[in-house]
Specification:
Helices cover 3% and strands 48% of the residues. The chain is mainly beta. Strand 3 (41-51) and strand 4 form a beta hairpin.
């Protein structure tokens, strides 16, 4: 019996931070990516683009997400976590994976993520409501 084909995840890319155009100012730009599977499993990723102002050449740095959660868009603030869904951080390699309810719309959640970069812990909120 042939194996069932895995559906391609829906991918949302969101700029988290960064001043101006990285190619003109050289400012680092941080991006988040959410990949939503057909089973509503959301995998979160973080990348930073650093551009050399003189040459215009850029380099992407991928960083491991060490903590993540999904919260309804009605939640306010990092500490307001009553209805948030935490990633299974107690399982190695799953700190960036969140299982949303079966019939939930991922665009009705925002995603908090933390990653390590330059010897520090960074935090951002990813809102995919307006992402393509």
């Amino acid at each position: 019996m042939p194996a069932l084909a895995q559906a391609t995840p829906v991918i949302y890319k969101v700029r988290l931070t960064g001043g101006g155009n990285a190619f003109l100012t050289g400012a680092a730009n941080q991006w988040g990516r959410a990949e939503v599977s057909s089973t509503n499993e959301v995998s979160l990723y973080q990348s930073t683009l650093v551009v050399n102002m003189i040459t215009g050449l850029g380099k992407w740095y991928e960083h491991t997400v060490v903590t993540s959660r999904a919260c309804p868009v009605s939640q306010r603030g990092w500490n307001d976590s009553a209805n948030c869904i935490e990633a299974a951080a107690n399982v190695v390699g799953t700190a960036n994976i969140i299982q949303l309810p079966k019939d939930a719309n991922p665009k009705e959640y925002y995603f908090d993520l933390q990653w390590e970069e330059n010897s520090g812990l960074h935090r951002a909120r990813m809102d995919i409501r307006n992402a393509d």
